[in-house]
UniProtKB/TrEMBL annotation:
Keyword field: Aspartyl esterase, Hydrolase, Signal
PANTHER family the record matches: ACYL-COA THIOESTER HYDROLASE YBHC-RELATED, PECTINESTERASE 53-RELATED
Secretion signal span: 1-21
Gene3D superfamilies, per database record: Exo-inulinase, domain 1 (2.60.120.560), Single-stranded right-handed beta-helix, Pectin lyase-like (2.160.20.10)
Annotated ranges, domain 3-keto-alpha-glucoside-1,2-lyase/3-keto-2-hydroxy-glucal hydratase: 103-211
InterPro entries: AL/BT2_dom (IPR010496), Pectin_lyas_fold (IPR012334), Pectin_lyase_fold/virulence (IPR011050), Pectinesterase_cat (IPR000070)
Chain ranges of the Pectinesterase catalytic domain: 456-775
Full protein name: Ig-like domain-containing protein
Length: 793
């Protein structure tokens, strides 16, 4: 064979290699980018599924197109090479975004296939009207599609690809979108380990399909402490944001590229690991950020550009119309801003409120219309609670503007400016409102020095150290030692703000009256997903969680004589979970006496040790829960309220226990009353439709006990919702007990139908549940804790 023939033979051998003979990207062990057609997919399935390989918009990159016939296309190779713990991943996008989720247009990534009627996977659909993605864990069983877990995210621009990944480790499932973990679930269906693709109701493009070991975590791109939306105004300096790349907990350094879908609205460049945005003209554009080495690593950022800030020269008679009052001094540094218009104004579509330092006209804070990000905590705090919030609220004629946390300093003078477009259809002091500039004279000076001592006061409009509860918490965390006791007295008022405490013990929040002091906010899982965790400066995205009050690493927090409300309504929420309080301190203690807690789902979540005394907890779905050690509800009212999302369908579940060990008491209700009432939908709970508890995850313990409690007729005769058989810890009778149960009138209750729960013995009660001392005996390695009511006055 001559040299020419040898070279031709070698070239033919190379061209005959399968598509992924080279190393797959993303630590995958099998992959297909469709540059070699459909050779890795059985030909017998191609026609039935309507599969073709096409050039992507003439770009030279090839994609697989399924035309929506609803027939799976399966890969030739099984996933046996990665055994039981593997991931399957693909980029996918609808060929047209004209299909909404309500029409059934779906793209599916199948991770475990048995036959067309039995498989496990993930689905993706787009609701164009709301610009939302629905990304769900699904199972096809006996021809019926079941949703194991549902999640949602904002959609990218039309034509966006989305990287969907599903990890399968035995029965544990984890779903990711663009590297971000969305939901997890368990399913033990014995389906085979073949993977596949499926489109139903619309054509879908697929690319870069991969399989690999689940131990290799996906890569996620995100902006530090920023959600995936950025607001700019013409005339402002370019804004820069740190881009972070993470695989699990490991931070990576990747070569990145960024492209604006409309560079005439906003331009973007990558400089030293940061995205730098420049506003060009008003409008919306989307920035695609991706790894130059791996197309599956990408994210999208929506950029809104508003018209330039307009500083008005109009003057108004502001006396009695603004707070703080014009030229006021000794103003608390946590003050909110208020304007009293002549009639209820309308919030505009854009623009901002700005706070300037009077001495040098330095811009201190920009407060934008719509959703924004706040970093709750004191200046210089290493870990903060980062949340989405809406800083401008309208209540009748009164507008409240919430500056970002810790922006004002002691001993400074400031003035306020309001863009012309922030409030429309409005008049102020008899004049048409055209914005506020420096000429309007809304200025004030803050207190010269921080308060001293360990007794602090909060009042939203009267003489006090602080205007907000968070202002007092920031002061306590920053200026006082961890162990030093601090008393924060709160005057009657409605305090609208998310709250955060970390690293400070022995704090008491005591209200002037139980019903008069209301700490509230709107928050839910759709707004701030997850139970919440603080984050450092170089932490991706927004992780502050869905509660009103998040507590981390704190001991002996006392709440006394006040009300906590999460104003989210299940019927209107994208994510219905909405705690009033998350006590996330595994070894810490929480005391709540004479306190009301109102929400619908997940009202109270506790870790560690907690004592609720003569308090009210109201909710519907798992409204008392957590990975706790011991929580005692003594002489309290546990009120099941009607579900606004499902009126007339049921009374929900009081407890979902996730107690950390079988030896811990878990959730104990002593001498308490289980009642019912109207929820935010003004519907009550029907008789016999509420349950004492339902099973938590099989990796935790269902420790729930009711001792000498009165229960109204809304509690089902069976009491306990029968656990699923796969739960090892929640077998009948394992942790669900009661003793001395009575009806609401104090007569002994018939508990003969209480299965799988059991009746505790007198000895069990006397040795474990009859007092606070017994319930908290294991605290501090057996040293114990025996709290007692404090003087509320």
């Amino acid at each position: 064979m001559n040299t020419r023939h040898l070279l031709l033979a070698l070239l033919a051998a190379i061209l005959s290699l399968p598509a992924c003979a080279v190393t797959c990207p993303g630590n995958a062990t099998w992959c297909d980018d469709f540059e070699h057609g459909t050779e890795r997919w059985p030909s017998k399935d191609l026609a039935a599924s309507g599969a073709t390989v096409q050039s992507q918009n003439g770009s030279g990159n090839h994609v697989l197109v399924l035309n929506g016939q609803g027939v799976p296309l399966l890969a030739s190779e099984p996933v046996a090479q990665v055994k039981d713990a593997y991931f399957v991943e693909a980029r996918m996008r609808p060929v047209s975004n004209a299909v909404t989720s309500s029409t059934g247009g779906q793209a599916y990534l199948i991770a475990r296939y048995q036959d067309d009627n039995n498989w496990l996977g993930a689905s993706l659909s787009i609701n164009v009207d709301r610009q939302r993605l629905a990304v769900d864990l699904v199972k096809m069983q006996h021809g019926k599609l079941l949703k194991l877990k549902q999640s949602g995210k904002d959609a990218g621009p039309n034509g966006s690809f989305y990287t969907v990944r599903l990890d399968v480790a035995g029965g544990a499932l984890v779903l990711y979108l663009n590297g971000e973990m969305l939901v997890s679930a368990t399913d033990s269906s014995p389906f085979e380990g073949r993977i596949g693709l499926l489109a139903k109701g619309q054509s879908v493009e697929f690319d870069d399909v991969r399989i690999g070991a689940a131990a290799s975590k996906p890569v996620r791109l995100a902006l530090a402490r920023v959600m995936d939306r950025v607001s700019l105004q013409l005339g402002d300096a370019p804004q820069s944001y740190q881009v972070l790349a993470f695989s699990g907990k490991d931070r990576l350094t990747l070569p990145l590229s960024a492209l604006s879908s409309n560079a005439s609205i906003a331009g973007v460049v990558v400089e030293d690991g940061k995205l730098v945005f420049t506003a060009k003209r008003p409008g919306l554009t989307t920035i695609a950020v991706s790894s130059q080495a791996d197309a599956n690593v990408a994210t999208y950022i929506t950029v809104r550009v508003d018209p330039a800030f307009t500083s008005s020269s109009q003057q108004y008679a502001l006396q009695g119309k603004v707070r703080p009052a014009s030229h006021a001094d000794e103003v608390p540094v946590d003050t909110h801003l208020q304007i009293e218009f002549d009639q209820a104004p309308t919030l505009g579509q854009g623009g901002s409120v700005r706070i300037y330092r009077a001495s040098d006209n330095a811009l201190v804070d920009i407060i934008r219309v719509g959703e924004d990000i706040d970093e709750i905590g004191y200046e210089g705090q290493e870990l903060k609670r980062v949340v989405r919030f809406r800083p401008i609220r309208i209540d009748g004629r009164t507008v409240t503007i919430q500056p970002h946390s810790a922006r004002l300093a002691y001993g400074m003078a400031y003035y306020i400016a309001v863009d012309v477009g922030v409030f429309v259809n409005a008049s102020l002091a008899g004049q048409a409102f055209t914005g506020l500039g420096q000429a309007a004279g809304w200025s004030f000076s803050t207190r010269k020095l921080a308060p001293s001592g360990t007794s602090l006061t909060v009042d939203d409009d009267g003489p006090a150290d602080f205007r907000t509860v968070q202002g007092a918490l920031n002061h306590a965390m920053r200026y006082l030692s961890r162990a030093e006791p601090v008393s924060i007295r709160i005057a009657n008022g409605r305090y609208e703000q998310l709250l955060y405490l970390r690293g400070k013990d022995n704090i008491t929040l005591r209200g002037e009256s139980r019903d008069g002091v209301i700490l509230q906010a709107y928050n839910d899982d759709g707004n701030n997903p997850g139970t919440g965790v603080s984050q450092g400066l170089l932490t991706p995205s927004v992780t502050g969680g869905r509660s009103v009050f998040l507590i981390e690493d704190a001991d002996m927090l006392m709440l006394d004589t006040l009300t906590l409300v999460n104003t989210a309504v299940r019927a209107k929420s994208v994510g219905a979970q909405a705690e009033t309080l998350v006590f996330s301190s595994d070894r810490g203690r929480l005391v709540a006496q004479h306190v009301n807690f109102f929400s619908e789902q997940d009202t109270i979540q506790v870790k560690g040790y907690s004592w609720f005394y003569r308090s009210l907890i109201a909710g519907n779905v798992d409204f008392i829960w957590g990975a706790n050690r011991a929580a005692l509800f003594e002489e309290s009212e546990i009120r099941s309220v009607g579900d606004s999302a499902n009126p007339g369908k049921g009374g929900g579940y009081v407890v979902q226990a996730r107690t950390v060990a079988a030896s811990e008491p878990g959730f104990v209700f002593l001498n308490s009353r289980l009642t019912h009432g109207n929820g935010p939908g003004q519907n009550d709970v029907l008789p016999g439709t509420a349950y004492l508890a339902r099973q938590g995850p099989s990796t935790t313990w269902d420790s729930v006990s009711f001792i000498h409690c009165m229960m109204d007729k809304h509690i089902a005769p069976a009491g306990w919702l029968t656990p699923r058989p796969e739960s090892a810890q929640a077998q009948p009778g394992a942790g669900w007990g009661e003793y001395g149960s009575m009806d609401i009138n104090g007569k002994p209750l018939d508990v003969s139908q209480r299965l799988p729960g059991h009746t505790l013995t007198e000895q069990q009660v006397a040795t474990r549940f009859a007092s606070r001392r017994l319930v908290f005996a294991d605290f501090d390695n057996g040293k114990g804790w025996n709290p007692s009511p404090s003087d509320s006055k």
